[in-house]
Amino acid sequence: MWRLTAIFLENDSVSRTAITTNDVAKPVGPFSVAIRSGDRVYASGQVGTEPATGRLIDGDVAAQAERAFNNVEAVLRAAGKSLDDVVKVNAYLTDMRNFAAMNEVYARRFAAPYPARTTVAVVALPLGAAVEIEMIAD
To answer: Is the distance from CB of 85 to CB of 125 less than 8 angstroms?
Structure first.
């Protein structure tokens, strides 16, 4: 007869540290650009905003995706991480017809083995953006 035994390690406090940087626009709401929990970094979604102005850049979805990747890379750098540390990406598009353009930018930014990824279409994104990218790095 087999018996399953579970061991639970209790942790009274979860360590959460906000990551800050002046290399991206200030958040448009009550959230951190990233949170470190242990060695893992959860980067909030970034759209194609200029860091200095906080305004969405002019350009198509590929240009916005490039800027969004630049922004999330700046957040990762501030946390001591890089795209090489990314294990999960969520991409949000307002139009799935822009998938190929976003995917081309994505393919240039990562090397195999690629992070796990989810891409979904949404009705709208902050500031009227066409694409938003968020990542988890370990």
So the answer is: no
